[in-house]
Amino acid sequence: MTDSAGRQRAVLVDVDGTLAIRGKRSPYDWHRVGEDQPNPAVVELVQTIAAAGRHRIVVMSGRKEQCRRQTEMWLDAQEIDFAELILRAEHDDRPDHKTKADLYRRFVAPRYDVAFVIDDRNSVVRMWRTTFKLTVCQVADGDF
């Protein structure tokens, strides 16, 4: 489905703390992201949305670009049918809410009409709601 500007309807989904549970690895241990465990309820929700065919799944993560291959493999292993994976640049060390706002403006808003966001982190959820007036399904209390 598309809007009047030709943008595709989408659901924007976070990875860490949302689709994936990090477990014992450090959040900066990028080479081990493939070890993360799925968050079963959120994975099932995203699979259901994708299967309905009304929205594209756009995955946006604060992970760095070096994690692309492992993250794509992890998403495929969870049978997440995603249209696009958007990651932060290698040298982007800004807080997640600033990075994601920039990524949204550059890569998402011009191409997708976002129905809602699925995320966990309080500062990012606040940004989606206040800056972009998006509806957010917050799946955990991400107070960090």
From TrEMBL:
Pfam families: HAD_PNKP. Residues 9-144 form the Polynucleotide kinase PNKP phosphatase domain. Gene3D superfamilies: HAD superfamily/HAD-like. Coiled coil: none annotated. This is Polynucleotide kinase PNKP phosphatase domain-containing protein. It comes from Asanoa ferruginea.
